[in-house]
C-alpha cells in the first residue's frame, strides 16, 4: 500500500465514512448504497478507489460481494502518522547565509 494513494482515497468524505463503517462490519454495495442514500454505481466507484488504494478487499458470498477493511493497512497509516508526529522540530534556519534567500524573514539588500 502506498501511503499517499491511501490518503488520497480517504480524502473524500464519503469514502472516509465508508472506511469507518466497514471497520465495524462487512457490507455489500446495496447495503452501503442504502446507508449513504446514493446509487449502487456511485458506491461501486468509491469502493474501487478504496480497493485500488489497498484499503479494502471484497469477498464473494452467494451473489453479492461483501467488502471489509484491510486492518493491517490502516495500522500502517496509523504508524506512519505516529512516526511523523514524533519527528523532532529543528530551530528555524534562514537561507540568507547561502546568499540565495527567497523567504520573507528579512529585507533584501540591493
What does this structure look like?
- The protein has 110 residues and is α+β, with helices and mostly antiparallel strands.
- The chain contains five helices and three strands, in the order ααβααββα.
- It has helices at residues 3-9, 13-24, 29-36, 40-52, 71-85; strands spanning 27-28, 56-61, 64-69.
- Strands 1-3-2 form a three-stranded antiparallel sheet.
- A hairpin with a 2-residue loop joins β2 and β3 (64-69).
- α3 (29-36) packs across α4.
- The longest helix is centred in the last third of the chain and has 15 residues, at 71-85.
- The model has no long low-confidence stretch (mean pLDDT 88).
Q: What order do the strands of the largest sheet run in, or round the barrel if closed?
A: 1-3-2
Element order, helices and strands? HHEHHEEH
Number of helices in the DSSP assignment: 5
Note the main sheet.
3 strands, antiparallel
Compile the SSE list and pairings:
Elements: H1 3-9, H2 13-24, E1 27-28, H3 29-36, H4 40-52, E2 56-61, E3 64-69, H5 71-85
Helix pairs in contact: 3-4
In short:
This protein has five helices and three strands. The chain has 110 residues and is of the alpha+beta class.
Summary tags:
110 residues, 5 helices, three-stranded antiparallel β-sheet, alpha+beta
Amino acid at each position: 500500500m502506498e501511503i499517499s494513494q491511501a490518503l488520497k482515497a480517504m480524502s473524500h468524505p464519503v469514502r472516509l465514512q465508508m472506511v469507518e463503517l466497514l471497520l465495524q462490519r462487512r457490507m455489500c454495495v446495496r447495503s452501503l448504497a442504502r446507508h449513504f442514500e446514493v446509487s449502487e454505481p456511485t458506491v461501486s466507484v468509491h469502493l474501487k478507489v478504496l480497493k485500488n488504494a489497498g484499503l479494502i478487499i471484497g469477498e464473494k458470498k452467494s451473489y453479492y460481494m461483501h467488502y471489509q477493511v484491510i486492518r493491517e493497512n490502516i495500522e500502517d497509516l496509523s504508524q506512519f502518522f505516529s512516526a511523523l508526529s514524533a519527528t523532532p522540530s529543528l530551530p528555524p534556519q534562514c537561507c540568507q547565509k547561502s546568499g540565495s534567500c527567497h523567504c520573507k524573514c528579512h529585507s533584501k539588500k540591493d
